[in-house]
Amino acid sequence: MDISKANFGILDGQEVIAFTLVNDSGMSVTCLNYGCIITKILVPDRYGKMENVVLGFDSVEEYLQHSPYFGAVVGRVAGRIKGASFELDGESFQLTANEHGNHIHGGIKGFSHVIWEAADFQEDGEIGIVLTYQSPDGEEGFPGELNVKVTYVLTNDNELRISYEAQSDQKTIVNLTNHSYFNLCGDLKEDILNHQLTMNSQAILELDEQLLPTGQVLDVEGTAFDFRESRLLKDGTFSTHPQNVLVGNGYDHPFVWNEQEERVITLVDPESGRSLRVETDQPSVVVYTSNQLEGDFHIAGVQARKYLGVCLETQGYPDAIHHSHFPSIVLEKGERYRSTTTYYFLAQ
Questions:
Q1: What are the φ/ψ torsions at residue 267 (nearest 5 degrees)?
Q2: Is 195 annotated as a binding residue?
Q3: Cis omega (within 30 of 0) on the bond before 336?
Q4: 115 DSSP β-pair partners
Q5: What are the pLDDT digits (tens) for 117-151?
Q6: Are 125 and 155 a contacting pair, CB within 8 Å?
Q7: CB atoms within 10 A of CB 21
Q8: Is 139 among the residues known to form the active site?
Q9: Which residues have a Cβ under 8 Å from the Cβ of 252 and sit 6 or more positions away?
């Protein structure tokens, strides 16, 4: 196993460092101390060919100009917060409004656009990076000084484990996720519409016209949202279900689990033989098929376009602070937020 570092650029006078973790079978994960961004994950196909299975850029400038959160840790709160405001114990907090009057993914900078402190480590059968950030009281409008730690661990079983911890000196709200766009074809040779997705979720959260949860929970039975048996992602692009049409013909929805359901997601690309198994302790996952990914730019030489990647954003329910029947994302003073999501890469 090996860890290497390389200069990835300079941002506001600070060095952006790319850390590359390599296990004994040659799988590698590259991440930055900027935004905790995962830029590359190299895994073998069924013939042993190593290729990148996430969307990412080769320079800091491209991330600044074009990235829709490629590979980044987003927070303090992932997803949208209605009206860019919320109340805690009768006190109102006004957040940065960075999307149609709402707050999304932590604000203009959030956690995805700052330099984190980073340190690498190696233990028996594991290597990793620990990234820490101290978010000051009032940053993007959130109360409390929040100390955050994100740990990336690579094992010899081709397993990438992402652990999150956070603690605040005031009552606040926290909901963290990683926003990687996966494409198991490798090196963006094809889009993800022929990927097969399976997960034991019986319900999604209904979205309104601003893509905010309405508070209603919809049963997936008989719809293109039913992934309890393996289903092609392209099914969502052809579906006439109002929720598929609403998000640009595809998926951009929180799938939710009850406490008894196994929180496992499996993504398979039959062509390459690659598969990804995701296990999480979070109550929901936002599945986003990059329906809005368009623009006059390239990603590793490939023109940006819809359906080039799929995000599997494990997290608490979006906008939970405005829906009392959703699992709470309130973090009490001194309490420790913890969450872990593990990604297993296989070749079949």
A1: -120, 130
A2: no
A3: no
A4: 34
A5: 999 999 988 999 999 999 999 999 999 999 999 99
A6: yes
A7: 25
A8: no
A9: 207, 211, 286, 287, 288, 289, 291
C-alpha 102/C-alpha 145 separation (Å) is: 22
Is residue 229 annotated as part of the catalytic site, yes or no?
no
In Å, how far from its chain's centre is CA 301? Answer: 23
The reply to whether 152 sits in an annotated binding site is no
Cα separation, 8 vs 55, in Å, equals 16
Q: How far apart are the first and last CA of the chain?
A: 24
Domains of the chain: 2-347 (2.70.98.10)
Q: Determine which one of 113, 179, 195, 323 is catalytic.
A: 179
The angle subtended at Cα 245 by Cα 240 and Cα 249, nearest 5°, is: 100
Q: 341 CB contacts (<8 Å, ≥6 apart)? A: 161, 162, 178, 278, 279, 280, 281, 282, 314
Phi, psi of 78 (to 5 degrees): -70, 150
Q: Which helix (H) or strand (E) holds 161?
A: strand 159-168
User: Strands 159-168, 91-94: parallel, antiparallel or unpaired by DSSP?
Assistant: unpaired
DSSP codes, 304-339: --TTS-EEEEEESPTTGGG-TTSPP-EE-TT-EEEE
Report the pLDDT value the prediction gives residue 150, as an integer from 0 to 100: 98
The structure tokens listed for 172 are 């606040």
Q: How far apart are CA 235 and CA 223, in angstroms?
A: 10
179 annotated binding-site participant: yes
Instruction: Specify whether the CB–CB gap between 217 and 205 falls below 8 A.
Output: yes
CA trace torsion 301, 307, 311, 316 (10° rounding) = 140
Which tokens sit at 343?
Answer: 């990604």
Tens of pLDDT, residue by residue over 88-119, are 999 999 999 999 999 999 999 999 999 999 99
133 is in an annotated binding site: no
